[in-house]
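Hi R.,

As promised on Friday, here is the backbone we talked about, encoded as structure tokens. Could you run it through your design pipeline when you get a chance and send me back a sequence?
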């Protein structure tokens, strides 16, 4: 019966075969595997368990174990991005980074791991660039930007969890964040705080947070053999280049090379020399050498290049700043070349001078660098200094930033947050009283504080701008002289000026002649303004940049910074004047000196160097060779500088001419009569 019935019925069609996996499915499942293969994955449950039981957790783990990319995702998956007060409010999981590039690059990575568009569920915020939105639940941001968020939201109410990453770096902003967070977690019992650090210093953080628990995440680590040079290297750049070729010619593939350099300029010039050598060697090289670089100002689209897999039969050479020490992990490195230097901002409170200096790294730091060679297999690290120097000359640990930089920005911020008693503030490592007092003096002379040390209206307005108080003073002064448009252009250009010009090796003279056309007799501030104005007149043309040997990418960044500053001005009620072709240089000089009077220098009697007006025993300074007034004859008697860079000499980068009248008008409150009278003497 049944059988007959069955025969009558049409045979049901076989179920359709499952659809072939789409590109998206494949992407997600392989991404999933990559995520699960990271050392941190084995500790997922332990981590979530610890954070559910503790408000503060210190996570210590080898670089590359997955802390930065994974822990915020685990927190999101475990529901920390939704409020538990019954209202189901959306909360943000924030993760701070000391470096801009790390914040953008990691956000990019996590967005693709979660298969979402960057700027939506996963976003980042760095100064002058906010790529986050209302739907953002995981946000990477610089420590400095989170610090500024306290101004508008003192309890950080938008956040459900915060990870303060790279705490071992001890940057100024990270340390102040930790102090402020230690205070607010008392009232925000729902806020979870994770302090993540590479393997050094964990105990110190735990102690500071009243014995907070520590979770250790061991990473993969293969042995790394260390090689030293037998004699100190006179020219480490040349030594590094030689080492690169030696490795490439004698060591097997695959195995990429990571070179630690001090900054963009050094990286660019080394890249050029390397490309030249590669061209010369041509086909005599057995395998290809691919050069790529990573440093703070590298545009995001170029950053991704270092993560692309190395093609077969070639070797990648990555030229990096110490950003690759712990903030960014590049897979596939087997060789590290380490000259042992790093660029730092160093402030001398006695002379009130801050300058960029290249200094030897600490031992902790060079050890960390060496470790980068041992992630995929046994590796080698070539130190371009002697073993003796490692044991006898390098400091054990780097000095925390708070003990060596100018504190005026951070003090202005703390005062705005109502922290008035700086001497008793709960710093991890308190800065010297002298450096606090010097910063207070500077803020007072800028008019940000009154004689009782209280914040003035001007001081509050200065804080609206995420820039140095000396710069925000210039902006606020420009309002009176109706030249804000020009002044914020100059400020935006100053920040990017070191990468503005380029000179191809074969066309140096031609490039120099083009650059000289922009020179202004009053100095670099006006030269920068000239460049900007001409570029604007071409409607932001890239062809114009090429013709004039100016970096188009740099000018695009300047434009972005200027747009952000324009918005901030409008918010502070400063209307921008229309761009006028006949700007009055005097007004611009006045606006700049109103903030930069502490950087006025006068020509020495001998006429070969400059000294600060105030300090009799101050360092002699020289006009930077890149300055438009470098070869001015006779040399200007008085000028002010934007920043100091210490190389073979103390160089002043970006100089503006001023005269005695201007100095007297804007800084009689700062200099003594004796200092000011010195000017007239020189001028005779
Ligand atoms: P940690 O914070 O513990 O040092 P990360 O979470 O930064 O580790 O890195 C985990 C892994 O993610 C590393 O293998 C790294 O190479 C990879 N990764 C991080 N950022 C990117 C990126 N932008 N592109 C590709 N891979 C990345
Ligand atoms: Mg990390």
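Update: got your reply. Pasting your designed sequence below so it's all in one thread:
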């Amino acid at each position: 019966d049944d059988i007959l019935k069955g025969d009558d019925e049409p045979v049901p069609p076989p179920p359709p075969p499952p659809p072939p996996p789409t590109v998206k499915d494949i992407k997600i499942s392989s991404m999933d595997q990559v995520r699960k293969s990271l050392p941190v994955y084995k500790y997922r449950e332990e981590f979530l368990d610890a954070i559910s039981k503790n408000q503060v957790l210190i996570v210590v783990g080898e670089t590359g174990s997955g802390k930065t990319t994974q822990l915020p995702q685990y927190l999101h998956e475990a529901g920390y991005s939704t409020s538990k007060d019954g209202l189901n409010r959306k909360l943000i999981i924030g993760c701070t980074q000391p470096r801009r590039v790390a914040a953008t690059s990691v956000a990019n990575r996590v967005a693709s791991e979660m298969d979402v568009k960057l700027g939506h569920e996963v976003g980042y915020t760095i100064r002058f660039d906010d790529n986050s939105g209302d739907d953002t639940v995981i946000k990477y941001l610089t420590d400095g930007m989170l610090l500024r968020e306290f101004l508008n939201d003192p309890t950080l109410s938008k956040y459900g969890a915060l990870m303060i990453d790279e705490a071992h770096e001890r940057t100024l902003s990270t340390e102040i964040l930790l102090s402020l967070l230690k205070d607010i977690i008392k009232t925000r019992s729902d806020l979870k705080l994770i302090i993540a650090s590479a393997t050094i210093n964990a105990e110190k953080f735990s102690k500071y947070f009243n014995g907070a628990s520590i979770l250790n995440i061991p990473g993969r680590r293969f042995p790394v053999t260390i090689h030293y040079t037998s004699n100190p290297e006179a020219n480490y750049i040349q030594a590094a280049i030689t080492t690169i070729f030696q490795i490439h010619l004698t060591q097997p593939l695959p195995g990429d090379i990571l070179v630690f350099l001090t900054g963009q300029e050094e990286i660019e010039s080394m890249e050029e020399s390397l490309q030249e050598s590669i061209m010369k060697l041509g086909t005599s090289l057995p395998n290809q050498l691919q050069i790529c670089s990573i440093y703070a100002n590298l545009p995001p689209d170029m950053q991704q290049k270092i993560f692309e897999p190395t093609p077969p039969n070639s070797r990648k050479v990555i030229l990096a700043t110490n950003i690759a020490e712990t903030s960014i992990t590049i897979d596939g490195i087997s060789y590290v070349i380490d000259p042992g230097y790093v660029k730092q901002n160093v402030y001398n409170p006695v002379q009130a001078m801050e300058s960029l200096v290249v200094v030897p790294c600490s031992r902790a730091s060079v050890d960390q660098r060496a470790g980068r060679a041992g992630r995929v297999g046994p590796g080698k690290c070539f130190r371009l200094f002697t073993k003796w120097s490692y044991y006898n000359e390098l400091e054990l640990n780097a000095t925390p930033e708070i003990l060596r930089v100018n504190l005026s920005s951070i003090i202005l911020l703390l005062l705005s947050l109502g922290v008035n008693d700086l001497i008793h503030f709960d710093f991890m490592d308190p800065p010297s009283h002298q450096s606090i007092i010097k910063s207070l003096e500077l803020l007072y002379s800028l008019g940000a504080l009154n004689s009782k040390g209280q914040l003035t209206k001007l001081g509050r307005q200065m804080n609206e701008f995420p820039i140095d108080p000396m710069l925000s003073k210039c902006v606020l002064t420009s309002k009176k002289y109706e030249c804000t448009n020009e002044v914020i252009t100059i400020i935006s250009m100053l920040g990017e000026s070191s990468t503005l010009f380029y000179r191809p090796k074969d066309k140096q003279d031609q490039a120099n002649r083009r650059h000289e056309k922009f020179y202004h007799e009053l100095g670099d501030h006006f030269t920068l303004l000239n460049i900007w104005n001409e570029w604007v007149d071409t409607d932001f043309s890239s062809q114009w940049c090429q013709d004039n040997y100016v970096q188009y990418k740099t000018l695009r960044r300047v434009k972005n910074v200027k747009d952000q500053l324009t918005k901030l001005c409008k918010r502070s009620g400063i209307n921008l004047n229309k761009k006028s072709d006949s700007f009055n240089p005097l007004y611009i000089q006045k606006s700049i000196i109103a903030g930069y009077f502490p950087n006025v220098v006068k020509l020495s009697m001998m006429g070969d160097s400059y000294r600060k007006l105030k300090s009799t025993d101050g360092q002699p300074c020289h006009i930077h060779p890149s300055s438009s007034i470098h070869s001015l004859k006779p040399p200007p008697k008085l000028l002010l500088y934007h920043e100091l860079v210490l190389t073979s000499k103390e160089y002043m980068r970006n100089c503006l001419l001023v005269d005695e009248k201007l100095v007297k008008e804007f800084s009689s409150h700062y200099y003594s009569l004796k200092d000011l009278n010195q000017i007239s003497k020189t001028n005779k």
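One thing I noticed while checking it: The CA atoms of residues 294 and 320 lie 5 Å apart.

Thanks again,
M.
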